[in-house]
Amino acid sequence: MCCICFRQCLPVPMFSRNDFSIWSVLKNSIGKELSKITMPVVFNEPLSFLQRIVEYMEYAHLLKIASEQSDPVHRMQYLCAFAVSALASNWDRLGKPFNPLLGETYELERNDYRVICEQVSHHPPISAFHADSEDFIFHGSIHPKLKFWGKSVEIQPKGTVTVELPKWGEAYTWSNVNCCVHNIIVGKLWIEQYGTMEIVNAVTGHKAVLTFKPAGWFSKDLHRVEGFIMDKNRKKLHFLYGKWTEFIRCTDIASYEEYYKENAHKFRSSDSKGPSSNSDSPVHTPKKVLAKLNSLKVGFKSQNTLTEVDDDVPPPGCEDGAEGGDIPKCDSTYSIDIPNSATLWEATPRPANASEFYQFTLFAMSLNEMEPGMEKKLCPTDCRLRPDIRKLENGDLDGAAAEKNRLEEKQRDARKSRKGKKGQEWKPRWFCQGTNPYTGQEDWLYTGGYWDRNFGADPQIF
């Protein structure tokens, strides 16, 4: 969606993080109660995690296109494009969104859709959302889990998302793949998405299986995504390929197989042992270093608080494959370009000034914008009204840090006051726990009523 009618930049450029490092926070916390240490606000970007969730909607037009297709396979193609496009804004976004307060909300209305989000749980942190339009309903809940692996941070976006196409009586469900931030200790920070995404049409039985390949698997071609659309009998119907940062294309199986015969080397890992064979991987971090890290019991909980390290072996996507802390180089000769392919999605170029403004897309630039008259109609829990986010956006780093600390203390005090008091338990206002009818799994479902704007008493979470 074009953002030409919205702002093209933030009020002030971001602070330089050159004098700060995440590792400096961790190593200086030895002997302290790490479960209560929060990351400095300089590592934040001026958005709440609820607003980051709404970045799913940057390419919502793909869902409209999907609903217009008469062939269920073509509908699946555009659902795949939408699922991949939702991750594109993550590239180079190394700032951490603000952790939502319990009861915090966010709304967004655009010409073609509207979406409401709510922080429905604080321990564990769970964010629920519901978007609707004439053509689709998109809903789900995200329970982000973060793990510290010594040189990398892994983000697991636990939870299932669902797209319903009412015109066809269909529903598509999937879970997002993991993300890894590399070079926490030394080198240039960079991120990648990795893992397998299965998009299932619960009605027709069609399924798409997409593999997001980490650099360690195929370091010649970064950000790569590829997979197949299959019918209910698992017969391959189409091949999808591209880069989650740039584009997704689709071709027929015959064209794929013919191309594969001549270019098999482009589809194979250069090392059959996989990324764990890389000598610079955290798996091969010296035992003394790992012991030191584990003795600190440092990791990440939700998006702000440090907690214990997982004792598991890091997954392939979180193994730092670049030597010397560099970002892996991409060799375009290994890129795939199959004849008879159709482009389903291309990423909108970021503005020229993106590096000054947290690498935001134009869509992201608009998410915290306070449009004329908006303050009077917003729910009082909307994160546009959060003073810490607003102060960071306006360049007041000290003020943002002070407000962030005040809000966190206020939230802790409110939780203590409710503890043990019958009937005082926190209840989400716009969502309730229930069963997703398409997956049969527990989910957070929208209860309705938000857009009537009868918000009731202000819980004064800010």
Task: Note down, in words, how this protein is organized.
It is a single chain. This protein has 462 residues and is of the alpha+beta class. 20% of the residues lie in helices and 27% in strands. Strands 6-7-10-11-9-8 form a 6-stranded antiparallel β-barrel. A two-stranded parallel ribbon has the order 1-2. A two-stranded antiparallel ribbon has the order 16-17. A hairpin with a 4-residue loop joins strand 8 (161-165) and strand 9 (170-174). Helix 9 (387-393) packs antiparallel against helix 10. The radius of gyration is 22 Å and the shape is globular. The protein starts with 21 loop residues before the first helix and ends in a 16-residue tail after the last strand. 42% of the residues are buried. Residues 29-37 and 270-311 have low confidence and may be disordered.
Summarize the structure.
The chain is α+β, with helices and mostly antiparallel strands.
